[in-house]
């Protein structure tokens, strides 16, 4: 088959092949004598692609410091952290799914179902509500994962169906109206704090650490990345491809459901009609800006956190400067394009 | 049409109309398509080097050569996909320069590809007339006429199908016929067929050949690309052999011995005998086989394959491209579904179609395509090496760097993988080192059987020797190895026995002193002469099947040869 590839594709596909032996040994020699010489020319573009998002956050903060008094203050930043929590938690699951070369559009609707189900089970106490929320995540995630792994529906189609269907389900379950939350534990979760840090932020931080460890330190995490990087090779290497895929969507579902719980707790009311609308897009934005390529094979958890924060900060900064939310949206579009463009640069470089 | 006159006894069944009235398409024998001194360069490679090629009116011209010989490039130059850098293409006496495939098609050069290149969801009739639909006076597609014409056309080709059916509901063979009908309906003068039978059932092949005979009779010139010797001798008049971008032979096919043809393709002379460097040992005879493959059938490429491998034995799989070697090892490794037959590892039967299961049972396969089936590009050398062994190295599902590092260090040292650090991205390595990384991946799973599919393809000479040496070492340690290589000397040098496949079935087996390039070549060619017979005669004495009764392997040879 390689014979009939176009020349451009052939060379693009295997850059080292043309100068196989020579370059290989030269490279290796350079590597063994001192890695510095070889890596220096690659440092600049690579650095920007990997850490550009953090630099952008610093830049935004500096701009805010100069232009918007009061924005960069303890209270101000605290507000931003609280507001970013739902998107952030959803983005963590999204990063895993994208790492497998998939996508999960259902997350916003899962949040809504979670919010709709929560008040129904708070009669069993806060623990009952939490369990119900987790079950929502597991069930919706299993459906999405099974469609992708076993029925082999494309992820975007499978989760698009769930996006629509679950939004409807949320409206049905929630009776189409807002429900006040009166359970004190849930309200405490939404409004309380420990050592000045809001509970929701603590929960989000714990989840970030757990997901980061899962990706880096568990077989599941490494297999997930390998499957995203080369599915055929992973299958041939005996990896449980379908099991990993289903699990990934379950994790994403549970994280979305938990995000629904946190958002509801913060609001003090269950609003299944509107909760999580378009949130899947914000999550995808955060993941992409954070340096996880949509083509899979790589998951950057901290980058995703930074991506979510960056979008949040920029939006907030624009709004506090009396620009409309519509303007913020347009700026967000610019950021997405810029992030993807920088990603493309990475692929060209490597 | 002097060629047909010289048809020698029974080499091919003469088509009914051969040599009769050529119809209105001009004199037979005069060149319809000529290529003179064509050069085509791709970055880093000269795909065509001063190629001359002449296609005569009303002939079936075989174009053969191993992978990378330049056949596909030549076809693409003929059909307007590529443009030649130098030289000229003359079509019907005039110099032409097609800039895109549709121009060649409009001029009467049609191509039928290996895989059907049509729109599966649309009707047969639409596919036949795609882009040239008959119109009504209002400029709308005239479906009635289109269906009627398509139906007539297909019936004329001997394939009566309902032209309104969606194409994909038809069998592959019939789809291929629709592609052919499309080519015919464009009033093609020249038909290029690129391995048209590779995905067809034997019965479908017959239909295709019958249709080709009709076209041939009406004066259409056909360029026929195939790796199947029997087909070539059956349908082709003349042959052009390509190797390394050059034409090494052009002439009548009938007078050319099969052995000679294979020799031309592979570029070796029969005298070149490389003796095996390993001892003609008594490696295999006593011990129970680690791998037994019995009557394996998988899709259209593996029809009936039986062989076994003893511990410490290297069994070569020989044969031309498309003989089913890769598919055989893939089926054994669980990467392809198995339709019939069974695979046993250390006596216990494998569940087919499950790579993970095969791996657990001790079967590891180094796949042919390093890029798409081996390397995980985003990961480091370390992670690529431990990929398959990850569960074993990770107690409780938690990754243990210490265990990984131990394994990685062992293999980096043993296989002499050149890396600046195990954390280096694998995509930065040279081809040879990537191959070693993959070899390390499989060895880290402690396999009992190692399937190596073209392990030295595309790697430099030094790495090649190292990999070959390593295979010897591994076998000496008791591993059963199956080695696929298109390079005869590699097979002869590395293997204790060579099982030759032809068209998905075992065509013969060479053992002991008969593992020589000349013998191998004659079995690959399927020569019905004494060479082949001698090669086969040696086999029954050999330790075929490691003592178990998989005997038919050898007797099948003679069946194929006569």
UniProtKB/TrEMBL annotation, chain A:
Major location (coarse): membrane
Segments of this protein annotated with the region Disordered: 1-41
UniProt membrane topology term: Multi-pass membrane protein
Sorted UniProt keywords: Cell membrane, Membrane, Transmembrane, Transmembrane helix
Keyword Cell division in record: no
Transmembrane segments: 51-74, 80-98, 105-124, 130-150, 157-176, 196-215, 244-263, 275-294, 301-319, 325-344
UniProt-annotated location(s): Cell membrane
Biased composition (Low complexity): 7-18
Keyword match Transmembrane: yes
Pfam families xrefs: BPD_transp_2
PANTHER family from the UniProt entry: ABC TRANSPORTER PERMEASE PROTEIN YPHD-RELATED-RELATED, RIBOSE IMPORT PERMEASE PROTEIN RBSC
Protein name: ABC transporter permease
Organism taxonomic ancestry: Bacteria, Bacillati, Actinomycetota, Actinomycetes, Kineosporiales
Automatic annotation (TrEMBL), chain B:
Gene3D superfamilies per the UniProt record, alphabetical: P-loop containing nucleotide triphosphate hydrolases (3.40.50.300)
Entry annotated with the keyword Cell wall biogenesis/degradation: no
Alphabetized UniProt keyword annotations: ATP-binding, Nucleotide-binding, Repeat, Transport
Keyword Membrane set for record: no
Bias type Basic and acidic residues, positions: 17-28
Region (Disordered): 1-31, 535-562
Short name of one Pfam family: ABC_tran
Ranges of Low complexity composition bias in the record: 550-562
SUPFAM superfamilies: P-loop containing nucleoside triphosphate hydrolases (SSF52540)
Domain ABC transporter residues, every copy: 33-269, 285-528
Single GO term (MF): ATP binding
The name this protein goes by in its record: Sugar ABC transporter ATP-binding protein
Organism: Pseudokineococcus basanitobsidens
